[in-house]
Amino acid sequence: MSDSPRGPRVGIKGPLLFSAFFGAIAFVVVLFAASGGTSHGLRYDLAFAAFGIAFIVCLVFAAMMSMSFKENAEHLGRGDGVNLRSEDRIKRSGTAGHPSAEERGTDGGTGDSPEDGAAGPESPGAGA
User: Fold this and answer.
1) Where are the transmembrane segments (predicted)?
2) Is the pTM of this model over 0.85?
């Protein structure tokens, strides 16, 4: 593993083992499925072909996934602007989702005042 301008790269051992595992599964499945029953012999030629195809396809897939990896910019994880972290909002309010009476601007928070959004009898649409 050498450092490139984009940072350290992932080793080759993981993708090779990943590809070999799925190649072995393809080998076993085709070895028994292609024989056509117990009276026929095992088809090693087709099993090795299936191993090679599965190995190469998985290896190409792993290579494409490793090349598409990109670190997020540092400013994206800070939580400024609209995308605030919930943890910061909870610490600022002091409670877990229930603002205090001072933050609401009411004395008791009964829900009868127009600021609370409750429709009282004198508001339009409340009756008749």
Assistant:
1) 12-34, 46-69
2) no
